[in-house]
Amino acid sequence: MSRPQAISLMIVVTLLWSMAGVVTRHLDTARSFEVTFWRSGFCVIALAFALTLTRGPGLWRKLLHPSKVIWISGICWSIMFTAFMVAITLTTVANVLIVMALGPLITALFTHFFLHHRLATTTWLAIAVAALGIVWMFLYDKDATFSMIGSLVSLGVPVAAAINFTLLQHIGLDRTITPDNKPVQDMLQAVLIGAMLSTLAMLPLAWPFQASPHDLGLLSLLGIFQLATPCLLVVRLTKELSAPELSLLGQLEVIFGVTWAWLWAGEQLSIHTLSGGLLVLGALVANELFRIFRRNRAERLLR
Q: Organism's domain of life (predicted)?
């Protein structure tokens, strides 16, 4: 895959991710936990089909005895799947996506405190600016309490993602690749386990089901094309693009998602949400650009 093809495909991934909010706003009767149940359930079906097709029946034998790394990652994925959809039903799409965008900075903090990775001054500055942006979003919000509850739930997504990455680095990421660069652990199994755990956890809370056939059609769209397909594509793209590049391109989800919610779901952005969100996104983009610049400069010095 060429570099322009990889970048274009990552933009497609962010477009797929970004449709969750606007699609959820067009549901008829399904609410909260049931929305999460059906989305995760359809994701399980799609991933099971795709992975069985590519991995063969041996996939299911391996799932009976997953490693500790796979289990930890799967639990984190389940929290991410669940917290995101519940949060979307509690606050605006913009609030959820902006809070989720904190993921790279939370991960940087976790690796600093738990793995003793050194953080650049620009990263500390980005964390401070992003935190200021989040505070500004809610400082003058007339529905601050309502927005805060949904945003706190959505915070589970970047926190779980940060725990996932940090723990994998600490206990197993170095052992998921053999000396000849072949994967020992199939991390897509973790995504499948996460979707299964999310579905099972939501089942008793979603009962009795109220989703209409119209709702089931939309939720199957989310499970297959907004969740399962991007997961498969991102794993492939990790072989083509660096982590900072993936993180930087991933921020397009916020722009796309907020735009769709504004155009097709009638969600209006307050001036405080807009200015606070711009602070968060500006801090993230600037930090990732500095990381890419530092990496390229280090590579040139080594030549």
A: Bacteria
Angstrom distance (rounded) from CA 157 to CA 83: 6
- In a 13 Å sphere around the CA of 140, the CA atoms on its Cβ side amount to 9
Segments of the chain with pLDDT less than 70: 140-147, 171-186, 303
Domain count, the chain: 1
- 8 A C-beta contact, residue 88 and residue 96: yes
Non-local (6+) Cβ contacts of 89 within 8 A are: 24, 31, 32, 35, 150
- What H or E segment, with its residue span, contains residue 191? helix 188-206
Domain that holds residue 51: 3-302
Give Cα separations from 50 to 8, 139, 171, 191, 201 (angstroms). 22, 45, 28, 12, 23
Token pair of 211, please?
């989703």
**Phi and psi at residue 242, to the nearest 5°:** -75, 165
C-alpha of 236 from chain center: 16
Q: Which of 25, 13, 190, 197 is nearest to 96 (CA)?
A: 25
Backbone angles phi, psi at 248, to 5 degrees: -65, -50
Q: SS3 helix, strand, coil % of the chain, rounded to 5?
A: 80, 0, 20
User: What is the spatial distance between Cα 154 and Cα 254, in angstroms, rounded to a whole number?
Assistant: 13
Asked if 114 and 170 touch (Cβ cutoff 8 Å), the reply is yes
**Do residues 98 and 280 make contact, with C-beta atoms less than 8 angstroms apart?**
yes
Nearest alpha-carbon partner for 228 in 255, 188, 256, 268 = 188
Q: 73-130, pLDDT tens digit by residue?
A: 899 999 999 999 999 988 889 889 999 988 888 988 988 888 888 888 888 999 899 8
* Model confidence, pTM: 0.85
Specify the length of the chain in residues.
303
